[in-house]
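General statements about sequence and structure are easier to judge against a single worked case. In the encoding step, the backbone of a single protein was reduced to a row of integers, each denoting a local shape. The record that follows shows the chain in one-letter code together with its fold in token form.
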Amino acid sequence: MRFSFLATAAGLSTIVSARNPLDTEDQVRLDALAVEINRDNSFKALRWTARNTIVGTLKLRGKSIDESVSKDIDVAVDELVFSAIQKAVNNDPAYPKVYSANQPPRVIRSLGLSVPGGRYSYDNPDCVYRTIPISDRYEYLVHGRRAAPGPSDVTFSLISNPNSQGTVASLLGEDLVVRDDGTYTIRIKSAKSSEKNYIQSDGSAVQLFVRNNIGDWAVETPDDLTVEVVGDHDAAPVTKDDIVRKARANLAESIFFYDVGALGFKTLLHPVNKIEDPSQSQTLGTLTTQASSFAHFNLKDDQALVISFDKGLSTYWVLPIYSLGMVTHSPWNSIVSFNNKQAAANNDGTYTFVISAKDPGTYNWLNITSHPQGLIMGRWQGLPRNGTEHGIKVQSSVVPIAGIRDVLPPETRFVTASEREEQIRLRVEGYDRIRGD
């Protein structure tokens, strides 16, 4: 089984090959089922509702809908629909699988199968998201294997809803006990226990949501994961009709939680071209140990949005930019995100980024990819649970591109055209290494 991201569509013919923990038989079977359901069910009414909701939310907050934005909305709706299906195909707690979702479009080469994108509500280009269905009726063992150096940040979150993602319980990477050979086992059960690598479930938990955040795309690898149900049972497996019904329910909820909640309230209520200090939350896909800052921008060709921040107590952070549909633009070959292992730091340990259409020559350039209107969601992770004193301070301002050097720290790293090409080449190779073959 071989996977390939769409590097050839970007004019890039070299694909780095490597064994990938996402390349599993269960992944391929569930992808094929999701593609089949997507093909056989139009979800026409819900698609119409999703598109109209996004358009209505954007217009209500003063955003103009030109041809480019309209295309972005179409992409966002298509991926939202497929994400709802992906959540549904791995939704049988009696017969759980490990399934990677929330990914861009890709191809399973061995089958010649094109898998649509399933990103939604601020995908993180660093993050490998995987789902495992859970019920308090069963006990589960999740087996992992880690290849050094491992992901930058790992969390296992029991959630009460695959769409709103309210956190029931979690196991953080810092608390995960990994054996000397790189393996580990996590037990999930409704009874209380003081054992290590234990997550207590309850009647509200429906899914284990696993995040592997990859900081250094050149060397870090997602963990291998498998799951087993402890003991025997005679539960009947869910049917395809059950899956389609669940997909419809997921989509209906997603429209409300993401297109109204995340877009309309969490993001567009903030002033344009200003990113504020982050806050912590337990809903809409955010971690209890994560602080997030939502923002939106509208820039002219000769303008740049300059953002600076101190990482505070966070151990991992990422700053991506998005379309007005809350989806990253071709993150494999466009510099639309930086994390703490990719960005160049200032001398005092802070970070400064330039968001613009024109390349300012700075290493920390976030390319709006010819989309003057867009969104931002910064994430800072590894923070104390439910804390308020995270020490993260964010500043932002709009400046003319022509005067960009006047507002940047004197030590700011600049790059030549050939160095920019190399920066992008390494990004393509790293991205395909993580999510490709």
Observations:
- The helical segments are 25-40, 44-60, 67-89, 240-267, 404-407, 417-435.
